[in-house]
């Protein structure tokens, strides 16, 4: 964990943010003009799935906080983060020869990527970009991957995908190469298509008005597989896009596009 009381830098401000219902890492980063790398860089034990009321350290600049270990020195830290000793010294008030780092000190390294993170984040960055936008364009998110108040029942429940704003009849494309393993009606999803992908994940395309894909066939990323509709449990036309891993656990699609 990062001990902010030991922060050496005077060039970055650190604040605390508690995740509210409806927020996720992507929306928090966007609202604070930062990125996922900086969120992780300030919170190296940050879990892959955001939780309501979870505490995050927020940095006023993009970069990483690093806790100095016993045998660390400026040269070693600079090498670890592929930056220069000059940058490390300037950002952390080490401008005089007698100023040195102590074990437990926290330093700020600007404009670098984190080297410490939980395994799930490491896996995510290795797969990022595997999926494209299923509408073929960046669409407004009507409902994010998180807990929400159900628009029909009013109950608070987890939304396992993202609802993308679209017009009735808009084209829906395969988000990645895959095999069509299901087409048809499935409860609240309405007309649904499920694709299986080479990385062990499955993508869901729900509430469709038309289905063009055929079960058992292989499709390539960008293939037209259906059209936006309002079938199933909905209040209006939109595309429900969902990703699940090999253990059938829902994951935030925005983390993989």
Mean pLDDT: 91
Provide the structure class. Answer: alpha+beta
Shape: elongated
* Main pleated sheet: 10 strands, antiparallel
Approximately how much beta-strand content do the residues carry? 25-35%
Summarize the amount of helix as a percent range. Answer: 10-25%
Instruction: Please state the CA-atom Rg, rounded to the nearest Å.
Output: 22 Å
Number of strands: 16
- Model regions low in confidence, pLDDT < 50 over at least 5 residues: none
Q: Between the first and last Cα atoms, what is the distance in angstroms?
A: 29 Å
Contiguous helical run count: 5
**N-to-C SSE string, H for helix and E for strand:** EHHEEHHEHEEEEEEEEEEEE
Protein architecture, described:
The mean pLDDT is 91. 14% of the residues lie in helices and 30% in strands. A hairpin with a 5-residue loop joins strand 15 and strand 16 (250-251). The chain is built from 5 helices and 16 strands. Helix 3 (74-80) crosses helix 4 (85-91). The longest helix has 9 residues, at 119-127. It is elongated. It has 257 residues and is of the alpha+beta class. 30% of the residues are buried.
Keywords:
single chain, 257 residues, two-stranded antiparallel ribbon
Topology:
Blueprint: E1 14-18, H1 25-31, H2 36-42, E2 55-59, E3 63-67, H3 74-80, H4 85-91, E4 106-110, H5 119-127, E5 141-143, E6 146-149, E7 156-159, E8 162-165, E9 171-173, E10 178-185, E11 191-196, E12 202-211, E13 218-219, E14 224-228, E15 238-244, E16 250-251
Helix pairs in contact: 3-4
């Amino acid at each position: 964990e990062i001990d902010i009381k030991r922060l050496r830098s005077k060039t970055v401000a650190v604040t605390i943010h508690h995740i509210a219902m409806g927020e996720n890492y992507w929306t928090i980063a966007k609202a604070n003009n930062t990125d996922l790398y900086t969120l992780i860089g300030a919170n190296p034990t940050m879990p892959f799935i955001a939780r309501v009321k979870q505490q995050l350290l927020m940095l006023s600049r993009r970069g990483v906080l690093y806790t100095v270990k016993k045998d660390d020195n400026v040269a070693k830290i600079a090498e670890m983060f592929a930056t220069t000793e000059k940058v490390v010294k300037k950002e952390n008030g080490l401008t005089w020869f007698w100023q040195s780092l102590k074990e437990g000190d926290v330093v700020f390294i600007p404009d670098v990527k984190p080297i410490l993170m939980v395994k799930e984040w490491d896996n995510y960055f290795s797969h990022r970009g595997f999926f494209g936008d299923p509408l073929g364009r960046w669409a407004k998110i009507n409902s994010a991957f998180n807990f929400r108040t159900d628009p029909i029942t009013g109950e608070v429940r987890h939304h396992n995908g993202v609802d993308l704003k679209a017009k009735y009849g808009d084209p829906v494309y395969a988000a990645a190469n895959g095999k069509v393993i299901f087409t048809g009606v499935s409860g609240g999803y309405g007309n649904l298509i499920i694709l299986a992908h080479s990385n062990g994940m499955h993508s869901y395309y729900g509430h469709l008005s038309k289905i063009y894909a055929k079960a058992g066939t292989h499709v390539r990323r960008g293939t037209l597989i259906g059209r936006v509709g309002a079938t199933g449990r909905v209040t209006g036309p939109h595309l429900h896009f969902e990703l699940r891993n090999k253990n059938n656990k829902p994951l935030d699609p925005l983390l993989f596009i």
